[in-house]
Amino acid sequence: MSVDSTGIESADVLISLALEEDLQQRGDLTSKAVIPESATAIVSVVARESGSLSGAVLIQLAYSALAERMRFAERCQVRSLKEDGDRLEPGAVIATVTGPTQLLLAGERTVLNFLIHLSGIASRTAEFVARTQGTGAVVLDTRKTLPGYRTLQKYAVRCGGGSNHRMGLCDGILIKDNHLAARNHASVADCVTAAREYLSDSSLDLPVEVEVDTLDQLRDVLTVQPDIVLLDNMPTGDLLTAVSIRDQVSPLTLLEASGGVDLENISCVAGTGVDRISIGALTHSAPALDIGYDWPDLT
To answer: Which fold has domain 130-284?
Structure first.
């Protein structure tokens, strides 16, 4: 799996910020003090636990940026042994990096920070996806991402087998409860109609999604056949009823469950027949995956 141009741009910015945090004007003082500038080495990037890989494509980007910043003529060479999206087992070698030892040391934490975070998201996503097998439900992320990291975090979700919801507010219409409150709790159906008129007037061909909290709201909005209805924090019994109502009234409308979905209940949620399940925890609460550098034994 590869990162698109937008993801590369985001990675370049974040890598630059990370290196600035670590090096500033003085650089890696410890490596300068104890490692000859001419020394070279080869290190292995190794998984310490099982999971799904994401962020391997950033290793070369990080070391290229680092060499330029530290003004090393010799660059590090990265040999990738695993690709983003691959399943990892403990001891799996993700890549080897060969080059000046000072560069290898100075870039180690930056590289690992990206790998453990993004691979953690991919691994957690893969767990959710595995528990929906056989149901047809698609696992989606949300906009609950770290500032600046959204493109990469959503890329990590794809590496884990999930799918992306809208990238931002500019990518699609999702009418939520706050929008209804701002319109003095107008009819949900009326909001969908207004959204469609706006899209038509703006020459935009985008789906209209709307959030509902109750089955009565669902019945109201299905009269105008929205593209997607988000069922917010509904218990399993209500989700089953919602699917039945949708099938009778507006069978082309997709239903998305969201709110309170975890690894323990996602199988039940997916089994209700909803088409999509959006989970903020994929990005805001995924634990880091343990990945480290193995240095050669020089003794």
So the answer is: TIM Barrel (3.20.20)
